[in-house]
Amino acid sequence: MVAERRLPRALFCANDTIALGAMNGAHELGLRVPDDLALVGFDDLEQAAWPLVGLTTIRVPFEDMLRSAVDRLLERIAGDDGGPRRVVHPVEPVLRTSHAGG
Questions:
Q1: Is 84 a residue whose pLDDT tops 90?
Q2: Which residues pair with 38 in a beta bridge?
Q3: Which of 19, 24, 65, 71 gives 13 a disulfide partner, CB atoms 3.0 to 4.6 angstroms apart?
């Protein structure tokens, strides 16, 4: 029984699809999001903004990330073998109703 177990108060999920599954699972267990369980996803899928979902998430700049990867691939094809590089793209929290501050 859920009441007998110690449950987490919050989950940060690796992506919004997992967070939506966790939200569904919480609902099936009778837990209220965010009262009983705060949820945060990652990648800001379109469904995260649906009013019935209201998933707090982290928006990532997919186009910029893709551009960086393609640029690096083209550099490598052209003969640049300078080794791996770290490229950091800024992310943006998108606060909706699935976290305690929503």
A1: no
A2: 10
A3: 19
Within 10 Å of residue 85's Cβ, how many Cβ atoms? 9
**CB 33 within 8 Å of CB 8:** no
Among candidates 64, 66, 70, 54, which has minimal Cα distance to 91?
64
Rg (CA), the chain: 18
Task: Write out pLDDT tens, residues 24-83.
Answer: 999 999 999 999 999 999 999 999 999 999 999 999 999 999 999 999 999 999 999 888
b (16+ CB within 10 A) / e for 20-49: bebbeebeeeebebbeebbbbbbbbbeebe
